[in-house]
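Repro case for the chain-ordering regression, as requested:
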Amino acid sequence: MSTQVHGRGLSGPTRSRRRMPATVAVGAALVLSAATATPLDPAPRQAAAADGAKVLTVAVAQSVDSLSPFLASRLLSTSVHRLMYEYLTNYDPKDSRAIPGLATKWESSPDKLTWAYTIRSNSKWSDGQQATAEDAAWTFNKMMTDEGAATANGSFVSNFEKVTAPSPTELVVRLKKPQATMTALDVPIVPKHVWEKVRDFSKFNNDKSFPVVGNGPFVLTGYKADSYVRLKANKSFWRGSPKFDELVFRYYKDQDAAVAALRKGEVSFVAGSPSLTPAQASALKNADDIKVNDAPGRRFYALATNPGARARNGQKFGDGDPSLLDERVRHALFMAVDRETIIDKVFQGHAVQGEGYIPPRFSPYFWKPSAGQELAYDPAKAAQLLDQAGYRTNSAGKRLGKDGKPISYRVLCHATDPNDKAVGQYLQEWWSKLGIGVTLDCLDNVSDPWLAGTYDLAFDGWSVNPDPDFVLSIHTCAALPATPKDVGATDNFICDKRYDELYARQLAEYDPVKRAAIVKQAESRLYDLGYMNVMAYPNAVEAYRTDQIKSIQTMPSAAGNIYGQDGYWSWWSAVPADSGGSSDSSSSTGVVIGGIVAAVVLVGAGVFFVMRRRAGADDRE
Amino acid sequence: MSSVQQAVVPAPAAAAPRRTAKGWAYLRYGAGKVGGAVISLLAVLVTGFFLFRLIPGDPVKTMTGGRPVSAGQLAAYRREFGLDLPMWQQFTDYCGKALTGDLGTSYQFRAPVLDKIAEALPNTLLLTGTAFVLYTALGIVLGTRAAWRHDRLGDRLSTGLALTLYSVPSFWLGLLLIIVFSVGVGPIPGLFPTGGMESGGEEGFAYVLDVAHHLVLPVITLVAVEYGQTLLVTRSALLDEMASDYLTTARAKGLRDDLVRRRHAVPNALLPTVTLIFVNLGRTVAGVILVETVFSWPGLGGLFYQALSVPDLPLVQGLFFVFATAVIVMNTLADLVYPLLDPRVGR
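-- result from build under test --
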């Protein structure tokens, strides 16, 4: 049989064809090596491109969901919209208070139901047309009447009754009921003359024709999914032109690769998602021409307790441990959590100890418990509290529930977050001293057990906005799901009458100082309830090249983050460094050495071919 | 009987009826395989629908998490995605659309699934295709050499290196290459970009060169971790052949050792490698998620990961269908090619 196969002509006079794979391989390798010899290294283009334009390159990882401001909800996309379009108001980089944006001033009527905004007359769209109150009115009206246009920001207009533009500089919004968040409408205002041609808002992604008409500090000039987002400075921006000529968001899906790109000078800035790791930060701290910005962040990191999941119709569901309904138990658990150790060991110093619900950077709303109110770390007192509540230990040291069985809590954790796992292990250690068992349920997607209420405690965290309304609203009874089958806006099923009253009062209070005082009372109530225990405020840890960026605005200006600000301050304010950076010389060396490598490969391949040819000549004889 | 064989070994005229019979046998064999593939594809279509509905997580909740959304908005999302319909109706809608070539609209990107796939597929094929050609060629050449001079130092070194690289995690190797050849270590300068497929802004030939420049490190990573498999399979197959009588005959004819290897031994030993080639070809479409991530290559692997994390059901289903189709088509092709290479198969 084998001889028959052997006779099949594959060994016939097809010698040159059979060599094809090797030839193709060598050829391809040559093409690749030759490519290395071309002067394409992007590094020197960052600070100064070939045409002398100053380019600011930012490493990002998050994909764009949509470039339509009516659809986008991810941080990267909404940050790009901040740069492309003006909003009615902006936030002061110093302390996050509302300041003029497209609107220069605003006032509310005595009945609190009408808001009149004065629209600035010095803002032009990038196609030369004037931006007017009519554009703003059209944007809001579109969101109120077209379900597709309400996809991303519909909640901002759900309390609007009517929006009109009596003149090009006057915008009037009539509300159904008072709403204090009218200076925090994070809605990009789009040019009516461009967008009225859009047919289906639920499918239009605004990413096919460039440049995109806008009136923000930058104009979107190019986009390729998961490759780059490219913007050009708007030289006629009313607040003044950005200092860099171009801003490019480049994709680095792996954070270590992004850090490598920063070291090389291929990018000017790396934020990390959500932060650089402590190891990356400490490595970059020692690198030349790199500054690590380790500043207070806008997130809080908390331990949420299941208060017994329920729906607005009164139906209860889920299976949270009944012992957690006792406030003393919740307080005892939190008093056995050593927050100092969490900051030192888990966050390695890149966080601040948690106190109230809203992080300290939002100074007008920051609240912390008084000395008598504080649930300070005190394991002995925690054990006493549990004893008082009737949960005593048995002879084996296990604390028993009302049913006589040892208490063990399921703690829901995000498998993708190493902090959750590390803190979880500490909880196991600390609570075992109280006689309480802990099972960590680490899942890729926690939303199923979370929504079904089938957990006892859970790691929780939110990014807070300058206006606290949203993070407060997710703990109201109104946010509970309508029925157990529905999904509500609620975070962890908290429903407390006193908290709800405070929430409603702050929303109707238009005086900023009085409103802040009510918000603090609501935070105090939330703290006492013990369902939401803030353990830490993680820092924003990011880094940039000082040989490419000379200075950049943080928010808050004293100490704050650069990426993901409320406003366009960082990229708008960034000043390019005078020199093009040190990457130029290394990259030209790179090109030279690349050439040498290619030459060596070429010579080697040549020798290889000659030898093969000789062998072939022998065969033919 | 294969056409190759017919061309090279002219059969006597009397053998014609036998050949026709064999042709019919091959047709029957081929029809069976193709029919099986079509049934598999239909099964994939159905499985894809139900399989991904078992993933934990509510797409609407994931997409709206962390921002203010009213109950009306949530309902609008569900209505738009058809998630408010009973399961059987979602299924029939899905099947009806799929049969007309419409894979639906991605939840998170608000774009037709086919567009999203068409956007990323060429990128993946460029990366995995280039790597595939290189590692297959390298694996066969080195595997042949290793077997022919087996148990010598060269074989041990080559096989040892291949095995070592084969067992190295690709993302780790990729990161190492980035640090050494992109950033530069000591005297080694940063020659290559740290990630992505293009610098952006280039056109024409400059764009081609730019993409080739970005392609070098990910391709080297893939080739390094993949060629070992082909090498080992080729090597062991050739070792099996090496004791065969026909090789002794060839040598007795006075052929040079090199010729005996290339013309006689290797063609017969390649069958297992051909199987592997088709298996690998099927895999090239699915992308290589770890290498794509490390090198920020905008391909299907990364898209699949993003789709799964929502879960973006239409996108996940569409990608699953495309991946499965590639594997099924390649396996069917392998089945069809086999009888041509080895007449014992398909009789």
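Ordering looks correct now. Chain B touches chain A through 97 residues (CB under 8 Å).
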